[in-house]
Amino acid sequence: MMRVNTTRFGELEIDSNKIIAFPKGIPGFENLRRFFILPVAGTEDIHWLQAAEAPEVALMVIDPFKFFKDYTCDIPENDIEELELTSPEKPLVLTTITVPGGNPAGATANLVAPIIINTEQNRAKQVIMSGSPYTTKHQLFGQKTSGGEGK
């Protein structure tokens, strides 16, 4: 167990086995290498990715497959090797979300740069998917469906 100070949650005691290593950090936070996942109170589908080394750094993350039914994530071969993924079914895929101040309904998800976690080794990387049909700001709630199903 290790004690971690956080800005949002105070001092926490975290199982060392729950620490996820980002060997190269996360874009924008390259100097931070250790994170852990915490649930967001009141929801089972949104979590915090809290930095162990920086109390003030916590990113909201979701499982994109629960919110975007047609989402696909093609992990580049070099990232598969870097994360030592032995099976494509094994990684945990998360995407960061941004909630505009005072407007939770306006939340967006970054579907271009998913966080890929090797859950067997607790190693992770934020992967930038080149040529992706997605954007960094997909509406999280109230997405419009295409086609003429509604009347």
TrEMBL record:
<dbReference type="Pfam" id="PF02623">
    <property type="entry name" value="FliW"/>
</dbReference>
<dbReference type="InterPro" id="IPR024046">
    <property type="entry name" value="Flagellar_assmbl_FliW_dom_sf"/>
</dbReference>
<keyword id="KW-0969">Cilium</keyword>
<comment type="subunit">
    <text>Interacts with translational regulator CsrA and flagellin(s).</text>
</comment>
<protein>
    <recommendedName>
        <fullName>Flagellar assembly factor FliW</fullName>
    </recommendedName>
</protein>
<comment type="similarity">
    <text>Belongs to the FliW family.</text>
</comment>
<keyword id="KW-0282">Flagellum</keyword>
<keyword id="KW-0143">Chaperone</keyword>
<keyword id="KW-0963">Cytoplasm</keyword>
<comment type="function">
    <text>Acts as an anti-CsrA protein, binds CsrA and prevents it from repressing translation of its target genes, one of which is flagellin. Binds to flagellin and participates in the assembly of the flagellum.</text>
</comment>
<dbReference type="InterPro" id="IPR003775">
    <property type="entry name" value="Flagellar_assembly_factor_FliW"/>
</dbReference>
<dbReference type="GO" id="GO:0006417">
    <property type="term" value="P:regulation of translation"/>
</dbReference>
<keyword id="KW-1005">Bacterial flagellum biogenesis</keyword>
<dbReference type="GO" id="GO:0044780">
    <property type="term" value="P:bacterial-type flagellum assembly"/>
</dbReference>
<keyword id="KW-0966">Cell projection</keyword>
<keyword id="KW-0810">Translation regulation</keyword>
<dbReference type="GO" id="GO:0005737">
    <property type="term" value="C:cytoplasm"/>
</dbReference>
